[in-house]
Amino acid sequence: MAAQVRAHAPDLDLLNRWQRGFPLVERPFAALGDALDLPCPAVRDRLAALQRAGAVSRVGAVFAPGAGGASTLAAMAVPPERLDAVAAVVSSHPGVNHNYQREHQVNLWFVATGADRSQVERLLQHIERDTGLAVLRLPMLRPYRIDTAFNLRDEGSEHARPTRAAPSQLSPGDWPLAALAEQGLPLVERPYGAWAEQLGCGAGEVLQRLQQWLDGGLLARFGVVVRHHELGFSANAMTVFDVPDDAADRYGDALAHLSGVTLAYRRARAPGWHYNLYCMIHGRDRDAVARRVRETVAAAGLQHTPHAVLFSLRRFKQTGARRFAAHAPVTSESCDAHP
């Protein structure tokens, strides 16, 4: 269980407000300081302290589904006596960025990422060889809501924001900047300038491209990425439904508009796993999450639909996705395709 971080009022103001809409200006921490009535060094110091404490993962990009790279939700039915050992094997792979135990016979759930689908498949095959256990492949077919920005003064995600897949993928010329954006801003006075120096271009071009990605739907948000466990949202339940395929969009859209839903999406079925619609709810304790799940199922009209509620029991690994890590800048030619 993660140690919880006590966030004081000034920290909550900083974290709540800037999980999206982070300033795309040359001195963003000074802009935050002006808004919060704090000196720029104090803002950077607070973010650095929250990162060290584990409450903040990074300040950076959350890419929209389909913007680039590949990923899939995967799951395994692991004998209880082998769970710790198998989870350690799964977590050891850099391409795995989330790994949880959940209450179900299918008890180990993780996200596998890679540069493309073939790389993800090779990772899953490697895990199967190492463990001798089958892996369920559950790729996303359509997102309805993916919103892990949390209202830290209340329960649930920040706003009801339905999600759309990215209209296109990033071009190869964008991958070096994308690698930096998913790693996170350095906590220096002019962080975009630091990225520009690595890329061999100007800070203005970096800012322009980030804004274009936001405007074009390639970025879901750009801002502070918090770690919900450490900030008190230690309970979560994944509710899975077996709905007719031709009704999935209707029900998924209904879930996407309900307060408290952080994730809602349609996924492929798999042999032995007949569920195709998923909904995630986070909260501060199990009872509150269970109550919200019941309310959500009823409000979406899914109470008579076959479903299962899988509470998270243990978190083995949680890191940010690194779909573009292999393309981190190494030369000054990275911006040549964007004059």
Automatic annotation (TrEMBL):
Q: Does the keyword Lyase apply?
A: yes
Q: In which pathway does it act?
A: Porphyrin-containing compound metabolism
| Stretches assigned to the Siroheme decarboxylase NirL-like HTH domain | 13-55, 182-218
Going by the record, the broad EC class of this enzyme is lyase
What are the alphabetically sorted keywords of the record? Lyase
Can you tell which superkingdom this protein's organism belongs to? Bacteria
EC no. given is: 4.1.1.111
Q: Which residues form a coiled coil?
A: none
Q: Which PANTHER family did the record assign?
A: SIROHEME DECARBOXYLASE NIRL SUBUNIT, TRANSCRIPTIONAL REGULATOR, ASNC FAMILY
Q: To which protein family does this belong?
A: Belongs to the Ahb/Nir family.
Can you say what this protein is called?
A: siroheme decarboxylase
Q: Which species?
A: Comamonas faecalis
